[in-house]
Design brief:
588 residues; mainly alpha; 23 helices; 2 strands
């Protein structure tokens, strides 16, 4: 059986499973559509949270970024993991206790304002649409290689599958589909990692293999990797980060953005009790940890495999001839995600860090520029092929990559549709809409969101993980402060919350658009997205943390200058924070 046939078999079987689950779990009411009827078991919910959490950015792009940047890009790993702990401890149980369907509904009720709810809808849509672009882009990368179609066709196939099970099943269908997707993606991620760890280190546990000896050289794996890449002009894989401020702000932005993203928060509304929300958080941490502990090993081993494939006799020896390039390079070249240009005409593949510092060494070797460009998003997906693993492993990781992208895309699309149908249409435009009408509005809005996400996914503004990081920054600057102040401060009022959200969102979006070069400022050239241009060296991916600080400051300042919230709102805040029996709390 050909590799293409194996890929189609694995991907097709997984899609059939997802669609079958959607038909079985079809939503029959708005409660089914928004919160899966509110009766999901904590272990089931924990697994669904794991799938929702581990998006294309986690499965496909995170290891690629770590592979390319080493320790410097471990901020993605630290920020997303820390953010989940923050969400589980400070937000999820309290929001579940409040007992509403959506994040904007909580903000609207807590700040006793339809305007606050509307602003929260805007913030949610901006963050979620940005996030879903990364998922659709990731799906396109996976499809373009494994089903041998172009990325646009892959996006359309992914959109059709998501449309079917998300629009039909709502949260109920998505929940049980995500359980299946988690099982697929975690098996797909760990099995190749085990094979590669055994091959490179003799250790079957990738997290331990990362700190084991490289079998061929006898050196520690990371030391071997450092040796190979530094001899080609790259920084040490384990090198420290120069700009500590940007690293701290970026990690913080990912953490609080993670805690503020609504597509995961709404998962905690699907369980029967507050205690179940806490258990869901614990189980989800276990399920997430299985992948996140493996990712650094996958990244390191993929980078070493890539370099030794191009330089089989070592980085100071000759690179392989282009005509003798391995089959995996040929296959990925078709997608356009690997590109080669023979700049010195020697017919070999020169892969190195083309910088001024390395220029004398490159010139002495007769090199005239780096000749191979490898898209970071392909490393995890190409890993089994680089390591010459069996065809069924390649088919499995194809299904896993698509499961990761589609599971999170579905959760985000549900968050967008519920914000439009429940918070915008029912909350503001037509409060008397029937349940049947609201369910139809939810399905229509999700359909429109899928079309928009597919279009934007075909033209993403960066790697999947970078696009997702922008979404986290937007959520950090807008929604997270409002949620935190809504739970832990009785003094912040509606005017303060609205002013804070608008200021945080506006500041963050302007900074991102200016320093990403998407917003032209009259009288200047467009600012390139480089550290030299950033204010205090703070990148657009990190600015969400600063936006959050501005949000908090503006909200508290405006609230202090205006009337305190009504007494019943202050009592509501008390009831959400304190457990039943300790005061006025009622377990919804």
């Amino acid at each position: 059986m050909s590799q293409f046939a194996i890929n189609v078999l694995f991907v097709g079987a997984s899609f059939a499973l997802y669609i079958g689950i959607a038909i079985w779990a079809k939503a029959g009411s708005t409660k089914d559509f928004y919160v899966a009827g509110g009766g999901v078991h904590p272990i089931t919910n924990g697994m669904a949270i794991g799938a929702d959490w581990m998006s294309a950015a986690s499965f496909i792009s995170m290891a690629g970024l770590i592979a390319a940047g080493g320790y410097a890009n471990s901020t993605f790993l630290m920020g997303w993991t820390g953010g989940y702990v923050l969400l589980a401890m400070l937000l999820a149980p309290y929001l579940r206790k409040f007992g509403k369907f959506t994040v904007p509904e909580f903000i609207g009720d807590r700040f006793y304002s339809k305007q606050a709810r509307l602003v929260a809808v805007i913030c949610l849509i901006v963050a979620s649409v940005t996030y879903v672009i990364g998922q659709m882009a990731g799906a396109g990368v996976a499809f373009s290689r494994f089903l041998e179609v172009d990325a646009t066709t892959g996006l359309i196939i992914a959109a059709v599958v998501v449309f079917f099970y998300a629009v039909l099943g709502g949260m109920k269908g998505i929940t049980y589909t995500q359980v299946a997707q988690y099982i697929v993606l975690i098996i797909a991620y760990t099995i190749p990692a085990v094979f590669i760890s055994l091959e490179l280190t003799g250790n079957p546990l990738p997290p331990l293999g990362l700190f084991s000896e490289h079998t061929e050289s006898g050196m520690p794996l990371l030391a071997k990797l450092n040796q190979v890449i530094t001899e080609l002009g790259f920084n040490e894989y384990t090198a420290d980060v120069d700009n500590k401020l940007n690293m701290v702000l970026f990690t913080l932005s990912l953490m609080i953005g993670t805690a503020g993203l609504p597509h995961v928060i709404i998962r905690f509304f699907t369980v029967p009790k507050v205690a179940d929300a806490r258990w869901s958080a614990g189980w989800a941490l276990v399920f997430i940890g299985l992948l996140y502990l493996t990712a650094p090993a996958v990244a390191s081993m993929a980078r070493l495999n890539l370099m030794t494939t191009i330089y089989p006799d070592g980085p100071t020896a000759e690179a392989i001839q282009y005509e003798e390039r391995p089959n995996w390079v040929r296959e990925w070249e078709v997608t356009g995600l690997i590109q080669y240009e023979d700049k010195n005409g020697d017919g070999r593949i020169q892969l190195y860090n083309d910088t001024e510092a390395f220029a004398p060494t490159a010139e002495a070797r007769g090199w005239e520029g780096n000749e191979l460009v490898v898209n970071r998003d392909i490393l995890v997906l190409a890993n089994p092929e680089i390591a010459n693993l069996p065809g069924w492993v390649i088919g499995l990781i194809a299904a896993g990559g698509l499961a990761a992208a589609l599971s999170t895309a579905a959760g985000l699309l549900l968050a967008i549709s519920s914000a439009i149908s429940h918070d915008l249409i029912k909350g503001s435009i037509n409060p008397n809409i029937s349940e049947k009408g609201e369910l139809m509005a939810a399905r229509i809005s999700m359909s429109v969101a899928i079309v928009v996400a597919t279009y934007l996914g075909a033209n993403p503004p960066g790697f999947a993980a970078q696009v997702v990081a922008l979404a986290f920054g937007i959520a950090a600057a807008s929604l997270f402060p409002a949620l935190m102040m809504g739970i832990f401060s009785k003094r912040v009022n509606n005017m303060g919350a609205i002013a804070g959200m608008l200021t945080g969102l506006g500041f963050t979006l302007v900074y991102i658009f200016v320093y990403k070069g998407w917003l032209f400022i009259p009288g200047t050239n467009n600012l390139a997205d480089t550290p030299e241009n950033w204010v205090l060296g703070i990148s657009p991916l990190s600015i969400g943390a600063v936006g959050a600080m501005i949000n908090f400051a503006v909200a508290f300042t405006v609230s202090k200058a205006t009337a305190a919230p009504p007494q019943e709102i202050q009592e509501l805040v008390e009831s959400v924070r304190y457990p039943k029996g300790a005061g006025m709390a009622v377990d919804h």
